[in-house]
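Hi everyone,

Forwarding the result from last night's run.
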Amino acid sequence: MDKWAEIKKRLQHLGGTVELLADGHELSLVKAHDGKKIFVRVFVDGVAKGEWTKTEDGKPVHPEGRFWRPMKRAAYPKKVYAKAKRAFGKKEADRMVTPRVIGVVPDFGTEGAVVAHLKKHFPDLELRAESDEVAS
């Protein structure tokens, strides 16, 4: 079984964890929930700091932010496009409703999403051996 399938398998159930090593940082992937929403959270070197969410020109300011999901939002919803086009012109209206990366967040919706992100940006990461520890 390849490492990507192994990561997905370990994160299949709620509470599943995976330890990885990528670019000199230790990543911990944890499948968790917040009410009804289930997601995979990424911890870098054991922590997830709020300051790592900052971006400049669509790229994370802090190197730890590279492991997180880019969050894209448009300045205005598409329903205002027609009015914006009349008021500002087509070029500016297109820019206003086009989604751009405004930050990075440590949560991914599914284990497949986190695997796709890591596969694209960190193809040479190492999978740590599965620990047999029981949480107490």
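The longest helix spans residues 111-121.

Cheers,
N.
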